[in-house]
Amino acid sequence: MRSSFILPVFLLTIGSLKAQQTPKTEDIAAIKGQCGCHDVSFLYAETFAPDKGYAFKDRYTAKGTELVFVDEEVGPANRPTKLVIQHLLVVGDSMVIKHWREDWEFQNTNLLKFDQSATWKRVKLNPEQTKGQWSQKVFEVDDSPRYEGSATWVHVDGRTYWESTVDAPLPRREYTKRTDYNVMRRTNHHEIRPDGYIHEQDNDKIIRSEAGDQLLASEKGLNTYTRTDEGKCKAAKVWWAKNRAYWVDVRNVWGEVLASRSTVALKGQVKGQVLGRELDELAATTQKTAYNSAASRQLIRQTIEKYLK
């Protein structure tokens, strides 16, 4: 009698462990549901400030065409545990700009947490915290880190969304214009829609110092990705086919660099140059002859290491 009771419990435990280790097909479909050729609108507006004398900044709006696609999958073919998604901006008919990248990893317990002043610190999460969750790791156009967070994809009442709150460096639209705060605490809400997806944001602009965190202002952001004619992204597809080998090497070298450090700190400039420009120039150089991955990786590493503190 006792052994017949133990067997079902054992099988139930094994089944539970297997369920924890296998991502849901709905989650994978949601992540891939962000892909396609999109017309994109970017809207941001400051909404609140604790200081009544604070002068709210002008609203920010922009539009563009963006190709979003899965460039790499890791794990079983039908149940990948990591998806690398690349964004490419299309300007006009033929100009292509490498945009940001996001890596989605299942039950990932290893994250880089942004502190301040282009510095990130590695944190380890308890496996129980990340059970069934996906982490989103967001990278700059030069594949350096931005922010990383973990949460559960939610599928309820006909809606599919993922939401996480993390600290991050200032986005380009901010750091090129102001220096009155140094941390953006982002609540990122990704929601899949039949015609694309939205990236909704509730952001706090934080002044971080030894005395602690002080809220300067809050803002609302709404980035809307609406699928459009794939032909509008033809130039991006051609550009990526030509440049992919180099940028895969860049992200792989970055992966090795980040994995070897518990703290990552970057310099903004080196001798008047910025990392993104140097990597772009190196990319152009590698196109002049047949691409040599080993040689390029060495040059990429040397370039990145110049910007490490």
Fold topology:
Layout (H helix, E strand, L loop, with lengths): L1 H20 L3 H8 L3 E13 L11 E15 L7 E10 L3 E12 L3 E7 L2 E6 L9 E6 L5 E7 L2 E3 L2 E10 L3 H4 L7 E11 L2 E14 L2 E16 L6 H26 L3 E3 L9 H12 L6 H14 L3
Antiparallel strand pairs: 1-2, 1-13, 2-3, 3-4, 4-7, 5-6, 6-14, 7-8, 9-10, 10-11, 11-12, 12-13
Low-confidence stretches: 7-19
Order of helices and strands: HHEEEEEEEEEEHEEEHEHH
* Largest sheet entry: 11 strands, antiparallel
Estimated radius of gyration: 21 Å
Helix content estimate: 25-40%
Cα(first) to Cα(last) distance is 65 Å
Mean pLDDT comes to 94
Strand tally:
14
InterPro entries: DUF6607
Pfam families: DUF6607 (PF20311)
Features:
309 residues; alpha+beta; 11-stranded antiparallel beta sheet; 3-stranded antiparallel beta sheet; 6 helices; globular
Could you describe the 3D structure shown?
- With 309 residues, this protein is an alpha+beta fold.
- It has a domain at 21-229.
- It is 27% helix and 43% strand.
- It has 6 helices and 14 strands.
- The strands form 2 sheets. An 11-stranded antiparallel sheet has the order 8-7-4-3-2-1-13-12-11-10-9.
- α4 (234-259) packs across α6 (293-306) and α5 (275-286) runs antiparallel to α6 (293-306).
- The longest helix has 26 residues, at 234-259.
- The N and C termini lie far apart (65 Å).
- 26% of the residues are buried.
- The model is unreliable at 7-19 (pLDDT under 50).
- It holds the Pfam family DUF6607.
